[in-house]
Amino acid sequence: MPEGGASISKTDDNGTSVTGAEAVARPGAVAPPPERTVGGAQRAGLLVTFILGGLTAVTPLAMDMYLPALPEVTRSLNAPAATVQLTLTACLAGMALGQLVVGPMSDRWGRRRPLLVGLAIYVVATALCAFAPTVELLVACRLAQGLAGAAGIVIARAVARDLYDGVALARFFSTLMLISGMAPILAPLIGGQVLRFTDWRGVFVVLTVLGVLLTVLVWTKLPETLAPADRHGGNVGDALAPMRRLLADRVFTGYMLAGGFAFASLFSYVAASPFVMQEIYGASPQTFSLLFGLNSIGLMIMGQVNGKILVGRVRLDKALGAGLAVVVTAATALLLMSLGVFGETGLAPVAGALFVLMSAMGVVMPNTQTLPLMRARHAAGSASALLGTTSFLIGAIASPLVGIAGEDTAVPMAVVQLASALVATACFLGMCRPWKNGTSTKGGGV
User: Could you tell me if 339 and 411 are in contact, meaning their C-beta atoms sit under 8 angstroms apart?
Assistant: First the structure.
């Protein structure tokens, strides 16, 4: 194990793990240049894997610990629900725009420096959220929190692409989902418990402490994975050139849009479920937290089914198509229940349909990240930025739509979920044309 506890090993053609001098010897060192096969030629050490999982958990932590407090925020700041939901929209928009900046920066200057700067700003912005006296200032602080937190999301994906390719990349993303999937399980539970002892501002205090701990871990334990020889130089135009080439790739763009609209279906649930579950169906903050955690468990389990069972046996395109079909079916059932087609429905049927929808996301989300990244061998940071920006921008647009008809109906949530799932499916089928793609587990592209 290298000094600092961060291990990156390489795997030779026979599957033998090589560690030691080739690996990273200190926190600021550069990992060996990737020597990938289709199955992936490098492996991240256990600690590095957990750190990357923690970075991908920045989003659910910032969102989900705050969810049980949304009704309380409306009362505390004397603001309507739609305005308070803008605090979610602002955070998402910040994460979208931040990734667009940080991704190319990480391709040019390496992964560590942009990541550490972003995490430091994230900690400060989160602390300021705890003291916001008005909803307008809270929205502004959440925007800054999202802009800075984007560094963890985009760079975690780029590091994974530095280390893996092909089927191994798909499996690694499923492993990250297992780790980061604990965040949406624990975050609303922690948030619900924090609210038993303090108000919503205490949630941001806890988030600040967690941000500090993650920053220290990155500083001391996460190595650099992008060698200087692989970094992009030049001016801003040169940094944006890989993005232009990626967007010109119809298949990459199809996967990107499919993932973005699938995320909108997921985030419409995140934005609306606190009000739907608590205000319409009478669930307590603790019951809502338990149901939210159960849905996250379903997502995490299906992510592991995808990574451990489907990947390598079923083409990634087929797994993605099946996942999207389940999401469309569950969203249709939710809309019919919300419209009263089945008569008066209680909490249990609605929670069941949401569980199915969220579980299917465990298959959809890792594959909508893996498939486009495999087409971006030499521009992982830029590709990761485009993927994240698209997802969060579309999610930010979907967020206020779910509350457009007020707090007394679940119809807007169901409509947004179904419409988003249908558009995601159309982008996947119309642009990616999976029936013509016979090399969906091989790298290529930019």
Answer: yes
**158 near 31, Cβ under 8 Å?**
no
* Among candidate residues 428, 372, 24, the one with its CA nearest the CA of residue 254: 428
Write the DSSP string, 371-421: HHHTTBTT-HHHHHHHHHHHHHHHHHHHHHHTTTT-SS-SHHHHHHHHHHH
Q: Return the pLDDT at 184.
A: 61
* Other beta carbons less than 10 A from residue 444's beta carbon: 12
State phi, psi for 313 to the nearest 5 degrees.
-110, -35
Cβ atoms of 370 and 169 within 8 Å: the answer is yes
Query: Which pair of tokens denotes residue 72?
Result: 């309380």
pLDDT (average), residues 32-55 = 60
Cα dihedral: 226, 230, 235, 240 (round 10): -80
Average pLDDT taken over every residue of the chain: 78
CB atoms within 10 A of CB 111: 29
CB atoms within 10 A of CB 54: 23
Q: How many CA atoms lie within 13 A of 16 on its CB side?
A: 4
160-173, pLDDT tens digit by residue?
888 887 778 777 87
Residue type, 189: L
Q: How many residues does the chain have?
A: 446
Strand ordering across the sheet containing 42-44: 17-18, 8-11, 42-44
Confidence of residue 269 (pLDDT cuts 50, 70, 90): confident
Residues 6+ apart with CB under 8 A from 380: 107, 157, 158, 161, 162, 373
Q: Residue 78: which region, alpha, beta or left (left: phi > 0; alpha: psi -120 to 50)?
A: left
Task: Kindly give, in sequence order, each residue whose CB lies less than 8 Å from that of residue 56, ignoring residues fewer than 6 positions away.
Answer: 152, 153, 156, 157, 176, 179, 180
Q: What does pTM read for this prediction?
A: 0.69
- How do strand 17-18 and strand 42-44 relate by DSSP bridges? unpaired
Contact 416, 334 (CB under 8 A): no
194: phi then psi, degrees, rounded to nearest 5? -60, -40
Beta bridge partners of 9: 43
Beta strand 17-18 pairing with 8-11? antiparallel
Distance of CA 50 to the CA centre of its chain: 15
Question: Please, is 410 exposed, middle or buried when counting C-beta atoms within 10 Å of its C-beta (0-12, 13-18, 19+)?
Answer: buried
